[in-house]
Amino acid sequence: MPQLRLVAADQVAGAVHVHDPQEGRPIASLTARHLSEHAGFLRLHGGRVAFVDDLAGALVVLDPFAGEGRPAVPVTVPVAVPGEHLAADPTGRFLAVSTGCGRSPEPWSDLLTVVDLAAAPQPRAVRVRTRTGEPGVAVLGPADDPLLVVRERMPGALAVHRLTGLLAAGPGCPAVEPSARLPLPDDGHGDAADPATGRVFTATEDGVAVAVRDGQSLTAGPSLTWDGDGDGDGDGRRGGRGYFLRLDPARRTLWSTVRGGPPEPDQWPLWTNHAWWHRIDEGRTGRLDLGPGLVFRLALSRTRAAFTRIHPSGDELVLVDRDTTGPHGPRVRARVPLPPMDGAPREGCTPWDGVQRRAVAASPAADLVAVSRGGHGEIHLYDASCGAVLRTVTTPTPLDEGGHLALVAKDDGAEGDTIGR
């Protein structure tokens, strides 16, 4: 197994912890760092990890392999906050940070930050004004002429900017207009970008909208349906929608969780959940049942896609084949009970306000999955090939609201997914 690092952010306590997951021992901690949980971690080349510090108003690049007791922070760059989404171009040189709601119930900021990590004599960051909303971002190559794509809502569109033009903007946060705009449904939420083809994917109620780079613009492609054959049982494979997209760059596959059931948040124990996958090059789509409750983000290990499912009857880690090439698609290979959380979501209440949750992380280089136990300062490590419990890592802070995790190897290819998770 390659050398791994487990990075755990406690965004409530304002700390980032680095552990050796193979030995379970702590390596280092950063204090006074408040990760933007919505923007998440963005993997960069060489095992580096980028995130937005929402309190400091900074993009932080962390090298978790730097040394015992002292994780190196080679770069910090001022950016506009609250961080909504974080993305990089395929080389990891150019980054973009969009701003969202933060603690406001409504979008209020129209600021967007673009960053050139390789600028001399120091990294360069420029802030511009676009449009208020809850924008997603993606950066498409090639490196000598990257395009920034901003996903807008209500009215929905994919707004296209030449990134080098944004970097040339002056001080004072000038307003900018896109060079092109492609219509999109108003309810876009969840994005993925495929560096190999220049395609951008956006999750909407109607399905996954597809756009492809065409010079300095985007052209719409055929949309993808949330329906699929998946497990072949003929039950519950239609309807619902995904709110999260993730690219598996090695297997050229998109993954999501399709949610159905009653729309009311306090009815979350009745929500249905399916693992949805789409083979990008073959055009094949499928889905399989994960069970009721709250399922959202997922992680990709060497052999499995890992999901956590929260439910009043008991939480579990669901491990699904990452290989989607078989005649029937992937299968659920293990359902592993998770230890209960004090302060877990309750029936009749929303599953995300003032409750504990779970984060999940994996590396494509290893058969290892990490799952947090929010509020308890614990991260449980599992053998993804069979679901066996390996060890528990204890963090110095409680990981309230589940914290946020990244499991990192230096050359695992995870940087091929260029949007923060």
Automatic annotation (TrEMBL):
<dbReference type="InterPro" id="IPR011044">
    <property type="entry name" value="Quino_amine_DH_bsu"/>
</dbReference>
<dbReference type="InterPro" id="IPR015943">
    <property type="entry name" value="WD40/YVTN_repeat-like_dom_sf"/>
</dbReference>
<protein>
    <submittedName>
        <fullName>Uncharacterized protein</fullName>
    </submittedName>
</protein>
<feature type="region of interest" description="Disordered">
    <location>
        <begin position="219"/>
        <end position="242"/>
    </location>
</feature>
